[in-house]
Write a structure and sequence with these properties.
Radius of gyration: 17 Å
Strand content: 5-15%
Largest sheet: 8 strands, parallel
CATH topology: TIM Barrel
Bound molecules: 6-hydroxymethylpterin-diphosphate
Mean pLDDT: 92
Number of helices: 10
Number of strands: 10
Order of helices and strands: HEEEHEHEHEHEHEHEHHEH
């Protein structure tokens, strides 16, 4: 990559103008990067370090993440790894609700990572602050579920296909253009349904129906998502593209994940979704002192 292709300090400062994200009980200032802790309440997430269905143990992971400096918690009760079997809504809620109830008392916004409208409805009724949807509120009833909660935040993510099929043969004519257009359409659909833009962040969906080259093309033009919503969220943590780049298994991808988080923030992302909170908080704290974003 040529030197000119890297963002300049001026570019990065320009994207840091205060944008506030309405996230349920909280208004999150996205002028500085935020760490979203992944707390999976699943038996089968792609990285074993992020799994476990025991509610007390999942809540302990939530507490630890907040102590380590997480700005948000993201609870997921259905794995979306390639080939993962779908989980029925009642089973997803059975895993999720006890953990959600406890997590809501920890002093940070709590997000629920789900694709299903009935799960969104129940989670929002129980007090969830944010819905993080890897299929961008396309489930019938999902837009209405969010419209019924006028302060809840939403992450709209791009995915090609479904988790069962997405990595079989991902194909695009113009991956960046198509992802930007899809997310712009989903933002418009949300606004039309009554979900205002100050509630929305967008995510290119690294690893969701994308080859390594597709992921890298999206990463290198991440700034193109900036005009769409209040902020950009990215999830690189321990994903297989990082394994492809380093030759390492998921358990050994922490350094790669930290580099990806920092570079994503420099490219304009303001929420990084991670398994390793303490390490990411430290990395961002030191990196921020370089003056790159403030
Ligand atoms: N990645 C995963 C799940 N949810 N949500 C957003 N917005 N962005 C992501 O990149 C993203 C996501 C997959 O990671 P993980 O939750 O660790 O694994 P699994 O789906 O296997 O539980």
């Amino acid at each position: 990559m040529s030197f000119e292709a890297w963002p300049t300090v001026t570019d990065t400062v320009a994207v840091s103008r205060v944008r506030v994200w309405q996230a349920g009980r909280y208004r999150v200032d996205l002028s500085r990067p935020r760490v979203m802790a992944i707390v999976n309440v699943t038996p089968d997430s792609f990285w074993e370090g992020g799994r476990g269905v025991d509610p007390a143990e999942a809540l302990a992971r939530c507490r630890a993440a907040v102590e380590e400096g997480a700005d948000l918690l993201d609870l997921g009760a259905e794995s979306t790894r390639p080939g993962a079997p779908p989980v029925p809504a009642d089973e997803e809620l059975r895993r999720l609700l006890p953990v959600l109830e406890g997590a809501l008392g920890l002093g940070v916004p709590v997000s629920v990572d789900t694709r299903k409208a009935p799960v969104m409805t129940a989670a929002l009724a129980a007090g969830a602050d944010v819905v993080n949807d890897v299929q961008a509120l396309q489930d019938p009833g999902a837009l209405e579920a969010l419209a019924a909660h006028p302060r809840a935040g939403v992450c709209l993510m791009h995915m090609q296909g479904t988790p069962q099929s997405m990595q079989v043969a991902p194909a695009y004519r113009d991956v960046v253009g198509e992802v930007v257009q899809f997310l712009a359409e989903r933002v418009a659909a949300a606004e039309q349904a009554g979900v205002s833009r100050d509630r929305l962040v967008v995510d290119p969906g690294f690893g969701f129906g994308k080859t390594v080259d597709h992921n890298l093309a999206l990463w290198r033009q991440l700034e193109r998502l900036l005009p769409l919503a209040q902020g950009i969220l990215v999830g690189w943590s321990r994903k297989s593209t990082l394994g492809h780049l380093t030759g390492r298994p998921a358990g050994d991808r922490l350094p790669a994940s930290l580099a990806a988080a920092l570079a994503s923030v420099q490219r304009g992302a303001r929420i990084v979704r991670v398994h390793d909170v303490a390490a990411t908080v430290d990395a961002l704290r030191v990196w921020g002192q370089s003056g790159l974003i403030e």
